[in-house]
From TrEMBL:
Lineage: Bacteria, Bacillati, Actinomycetota, Actinomycetes, Cryptosporangiales
Protein source organism: Cryptosporangium arvum DSM 44712
Similarity comment text for this entry: Belongs to the ABC transporter superfamily.
Protein name per UniProt: Putative hydrolase, CocE/NonD family
Family annotation (PROSITE patterns): ABC_TRANSPORTER_1, ABC_TRANSPORTER_2
SUPFAM superfamilies: alpha/beta-Hydrolases, Galactose-binding domain-like, P-loop containing nucleoside triphosphate hydrolases
Stored NCBIfam families: CocE_NonD (TIGR00976)
Membrane spanning stretches: 18-37, 596-618
GO molecular function terms listed in the Swiss-Prot or TrEMBL record: ATP binding; ATP hydrolysis activity; dipeptidyl-peptidase activity
Keyword vocabulary terms for this entry: ATP-binding, Hydrolase, Membrane, Nucleotide-binding, Transmembrane, Transmembrane helix, Transport
Record SMART domains: AAA, PepX_C
């Protein structure tokens, strides 16, 4: 409790300052709760180019650009679990640096890297191939197994999680399927079957007949095909060339055909590039591309995954929609593996809000704490999702609300929607698919969510079927279905189905910007002979409010997809009562914003009451403070007269204690336990009132709140230092809390006296006990108070540190300042103090300069030449007036009774003994024991 005198001083400043201080403290406290103070330990990072071996036989070398983040707590003696954190497609290790530091700050060793073909890493992009990208990750797991700061489950088996989003999310799933050392995974916004993702077909026809998602595929290809090659070796490999003697490329070995491929494909693996270019030209899938994409799909390894899995999927994601996470969840859960699913308001089409990001991060951290390091409780298996809420009164933007369901997949209660206009309608497919409707704008983030979710449908190219107005709100978490029929003069049609939410004013929104693509073949020319097919609409998490209606749109062209080039007019129809919504009964999660609002209101109310109470107390104290000055004591830092303290139970802690501390003195307050020292100090600092007598500081009487308390600096009962701040930052914050001007702290002088040196810039948690003590004393010295009160300042220090503390106190007691030290280390008090006050049973039994208190004693220490000790003992014992002679480690201790020291020397020299030294043996400890011996 350093500097209680400062608290007293603050209590009597003006009412306006008290009110201001309390309001500021209250607001800051509320903000701490509102914002939630950031946590996390210090982290160091190391970059390295690492050679790994991958390929089908894991024997092909490649260099990966890596960074590893290690928390301060991870050491060989305290190893930490590890995390492989993979980035998304088109990114690099820098893309996940912020997440890496966040996770490392929670105590995990985090390994990041730029995937092959990205950033400074070598190789070509093979699209999460098990032979290449997955084997690269397995090699990094091998490296984690070699680190002594990573926890190991067994030899070669580190405790490790795999985390990633999109491209990195699929890698975490594939890695868990191929490497049993992975203990848990958290894939985000990723795919189940890459072929289905890029060639969706909503009637279940599969990617062979799927509709090419050309906009997203073009973004994928374009984000990497123009990337540079990281090394000459990689360039040589891409060109089928060999290096020359100068480290360059031998021109004669260059395959000319591959130069064009490199310009066109960049860092993509060549065969993958060729397959993409074929698909992009025709708009149709091929068996080769389907096989390639499926091999890079988690769907092939779900039955092998036994690592507990948290699947996080975005509700604004037309690249990898919610159905991809649904397929992953069902496949992994079939093994009996723990799985949890969370949807959130974000994804490839929209950046999540800060609130949503924090929610997902908290879910991830809770999952890791339990399944990776075993520190946390088992997470629940409840399924959560987010829906749009009301319009915010603050910024007129839609709010969001989180709902939970007991399990995944959620139990559904199909809600049937009756739609009007179910009769056949003609719809035109435009030449070359232009113009086309807009359901989403791939790659445009927030623009997609704000603009495209309204949807754009081109007149003449769509049929619309409206449902009746809803009589109640309907919560949907899943994939609606509908049965449709179509006819085409070409025998084939590509259709896009959308489900709009239409409010009472006719404004339509397209939840998630999602659309279902359908390719129907073998169609009749007329609708009357067409068969009905069931179309699965996009999975959504959405609330259709009471009074709204549902609109089903069937369109012929969409900006994001490739459709038939030839123009045609189709006929489409919807079966009556076939639109089914997967209705659920979710539980809303209380808004943390609302909860903390009431907490903030409560805090501000408490602050208001505190302000009123403080004003009343300050005014009352100011009325009764004694401002008179005792002229006799005005020049003394401390005068104690007849001090007495009796407690309510009759215990008399202090009974008639008197002493003084003058300028330039270092006074030691001594006494056995229970003598009244602590009670005296508490009265001195104004913390409790005496029953009788008085304490004066420079002539001013001490009572709680006395202004003169500002001239006292104190270190009692621990300094209350903040370990995550440096020593200097601790001192600055402490002085700011006093409310006094920064220039009055006299910081440099206090630091010079305390002798902290450069250590003052280090964090306090790195300090030794001695450094902490000296920082605490420097804190008490701020402002260079006239009286410094220290309780056990050498407690816990080793001898060199104690010697340094003596010098600190001696330097301070200059320029009229004084020090009062309470200690039980009598030898230290004797060396550091100029005066002592000995207290026993609540009263003073001795006070004065140390030399006078110790005085001349009867005991002397005699040191004689080596080999003469026996002769000395015999000679001294034969002398009259010598009562006791006994050897001491440093010589002979002689108790004299009526003889002089010169007589002792004369007798020893006469006996032929070599006398080297004779000194007085009396110590402060001897005097102390004599004075308080009765009590002991």
């Amino acid at each position: 409790m350093p500097g209680p005198a400062r608290s007293g001083w603050r209590a009597v400043v003006t009412t306006r300052r008290v009110v201001t201080t309390l309001v500021v403290i209250g607001v800051l406290a509320a903000l701490v709760v509102w914002i939630r103070w950031p946590s996390g330990e210090p982290v160091r990072s190391t970059d390295a180019m690492v050679t790994v071996r991958s390929g089908p036989e894991r024997n092909e070398p490649i260099e990966l650009d890596t960074t590893i983040y290690v928390p301060e707590s991870a050491t060989a003696s305290h190893p930490a679990p590890a995390i492989l954190l993979a980035h998304g497609f088109g990114g690099s290790k820098s893309s996940v640096a912020a997440d890496a530091r966040r996770l490392a700050g929670q105590g995990y060793v985090v390994q990041t890297w730029s995937a092959r073909g990205f950033g400074r890493s070598g190789g070509t992009i093979s699209l999460d191939s098990p032979d290449y990208e997955v084997n690269d990750a397995r090699a990094l797991v091998d490296r984690l197994a070699e680190r002594d700061d990573v926890r190991q489950d067994a030899s070669g088996d580190p405790r490790v999680a795999a985390i990633g989003g999109s491209y990195g999310g699929a890698l975490s799933l594939l890695l868990a399927g191929y490497d049993k050392r992975v203990d848990t995974i958290v894939p985000r916004i990723t795919w189940n079957d890459l072929a289905n993702s890029f060639f969706p077909e909503a009637t279940g026809g599969g990617p062979a007949d799927g509709v090419f998602k050309r906009s997203w595929a073009g973004l994928f290809f374009g984000s990497a095909s123009g990337g540079g090659v990281s090394s000459v070796r990689d360039l040589a490999a891409l060109l089928g060339a060999r290096p020359d003697s100068n480290g360059g490329i031998d021109p004669s070995s260059v395959d000319a055909s591959k130069v064009g491929e490199l310009a066109q494909c960049g860092r993509f693996e060549v065969s993958l590039c060729r397959e993409y270019l074929e698909v992009a030209t025709t708009g149709r899938s091929t068996p080769a591309i389907v096989e390639r994409l499926r091999r890079s799909s988690p769907s092939t390894v779900l039955d092998r995954i036994d690592a507990p899995t948290l699947l996080v999927q975005g509700q604004q994601d037309t690249l990898f929609p919610l159905s991809e996470a649904d397929a992953n969840a069902r496949g992994i859960a079939a093994n009996g593996t723990p799985v949890r699913v969370a949807w959130y308001a974000g994804g490839h089409d929209s950046t999540a809000s800060t609130r949503e990001s924090e929610r997902v991060n908290e879910l991830e951290l809770a999952w890791l704490r339990h399944y990776l390091d075993g520190r946390g409780p088992a997470p629940s298996d409840e399924f959560s999702y987010t829906t749009a809420g009301a319009i915010s009164a603050r910024d007129t933007r839609p709010t969001s609300r989180v709902y939970t369901l007991g399990e995944y997949p959620p139990a559904e209660d199909p809600y049937r929607i009756r739609v009007s206009g179910i009769s056949p309608q003609p719809v035109a497919n435009p030449p070359d698919g232009t113009p086309a409707g807009v359901s989403t704008l791939p790659g445009f983030g927030a623009l997609t969510s704000s603009f495209a979710n309204a949807g754009i449908d081109v007149p003449g190219q769509f049929a619309s079927y409206s449902g009746v107005e809803l009589s109640r709100s309907v919560d949907v978490a899943g994939a609606p279905t509908v049965r449709v029929a179509a006819a085409s003069p070409t025998g084939e049609a590509v259709l896009f189905l959308k489900l709009y939410d239409v409010d009472a004013d006719g404004r339509a929104t397209l939840p998630g910007g999602a659309v279902s693509a359908v390719r129907l073949t073998g169609l009749p020319r007329t609708i009357d002979t067409a068969s009905l097919v069931t179309v699965t609409l996009p999975m959504i998490g959405h609330r259709f409010e009471s009074g709204h209606s549902v609109r089903l749109v069937i369109a012929t062209a969409d900006q994001a997809y490739a459709g038939p080039v030839a123009p045609a007019v189709y006929q489409v129809a919807v079966q009556a009562n076939s639109l089914h919504l997967p209705a659920v009964t979710p539980v809303p999660v209380a808004s943390s914003t609302g909860t903390w609002t009431w907490v903030l209101i409560g805090l501000l109310g408490a602050v208001g009451l505190g302000v009123v109470a403080a004003v009343v107390i300050v005014r009352a104290r100011r009325r009764r403070l004694d401002v008179s000055v005792d002229s006799e004591a005005a020049g003394s830092p401390l005068v104690v007269r007849g001090l007495r303290k009796a407690y309510g139970d009759g215990y008399l802690a202090v009974r008639d204690l008197s002493f003084s501390v003058e300028p330039g003195q270092v006074v030691g307050l001594l006494g056995p336990n229970g003598a009244g020292k602590t009670t005296t100090l508490r009265m001195l600092m104004g913390l409790i009132r005496p029953t009788g007598g008085e304490i004066l500081v420079f002539g001013h009487r001490i009572v709680p709140g006395a202004p003169v308390l500002s001239r006292i600096g104190a270190f009692v009962e621990g300094p209350g230092l903040l370990p995550h701040l440096s020593g200097l930052e601790n001192l600055h914050r402490y002085w700011q809390a006093t409310g006094r001007p920064a220039e009055s702290a006299r910081l440099e002088e206090a630091l010079e006296i305390a002798g902290l040196g450069a250590a003052v810039h280090r964090k306090v948690k790195t300090y030794s006990q001695g450094m902490r003590q000296r920082l605490a004393i420097a804190q008490a010295m701020l402002g260079l108070p006239d009286l410094l009160v220290l309780d056990e300042p050498t407690n816990g220090l080793d001898p060199p540190q104690i010697a340094e503390m003596r010098a600190v106190l001696s330097r301070y007691a200059t320029d009229g300042r004084a020090v009062l030290v309470s200690s039980h280390l009598l030898a230290e008090v004797e060396q550091v103090c100029s005066h002592v006050v000995v207290v026993s049973k609540g009263t003073g039994v001795a006070a004065g300069p140390v030399g006078e208190i110790v005085g001349e004693g009867r005991s002397v220490l005699v040191e004689v030449a080596s080999g003469d000790q026996d002769a000395a003992v015999a000679a001294l014992r034969a002398m009259p007036g010598v009562e006791v002679v006994h050897p001491n480690g440093a010589g002979l201790v002689v108790e004299l009774a009526g003889v002089e020291r010169s007589d002792v020397v004369r007798e020893l020299v006469g006996a032929g003994v070599g006398v080297e030294r004779l000194v007085a043996r009396r110590r402060l400890e001897d005097v102390f024991l004599e004075l308080v011996g009765e009590q002991r």
